[in-house]
Amino acid sequence: MVGAVIRNGAGEILCALRAPGMSMAGLWEFPGGKIEPHETPAETLVREIREELGCQIQVGELVADVTHQYSTVEVHLRTYEATVVNGEPTAREHAELRWLA
């Protein structure tokens, strides 16, 4: 799994609220998704952000590489710095988007 730490010009970070019907609904996350076998982490983030938020990003440096054990699943998540280079993020799949300090 990969996530994008998207920063705006004010240095705020985009956070996405998981919608009802999604696994772990009601939790906040960095947008992103599952890496397909033919993709690099950066390619995955560009595709997922285009699909989920309707904008184009440029992927930067790795922020963190962590594994977390939930009660039903283990998640290996790599997060990367990112900036929007075209369009404006819109909640297409999430319940809400928020820019936070």
Task: Give the SSE map.
Blueprint: E1 2-6, E2 13-17, E3 28-29, E4 32-33, H1 41-53, E5 56-69, E6 74-86, E7 96-100
Parallel strand pairs: 1-6
Antiparallel strand pairs: 1-4, 2-3, 2-7, 5-6
Question: What do these coordinates show?
Answer:
The chain is mainly β and 101 residues long. Helices cover 13% and strands 46% of the residues. The strands form two sheets. The chain has a four-stranded mixed beta sheet with strand order 4-1-6-5, with helices on one face. The mean pLDDT is 95.
Structural class: mainly beta
Largest sheet: 4 strands, mixed
End-to-end distance: 24 Å
Strand order of the largest sheet: 4-1-6-5
How many distinct helices? 1
Question: Which of globular, elongated, flat, extended, rod-shaped describes the shape?
Answer: globular
Radius of gyration: 13 Å
- The overall pLDDT average reads 95
The H/E string reads: EEEEHEEE
Can you tag this structure with a few keywords?
3-stranded antiparallel sheet; 1 helix; 101 residues; 7 strands; 13% helix; mainly beta
In short:
The protein has about 100 residues and is mainly beta. The protein has one helix at about 40-55; strands spanning about 1-5, 15, 30, 30-35, 55-70, 75-85, 95-100.
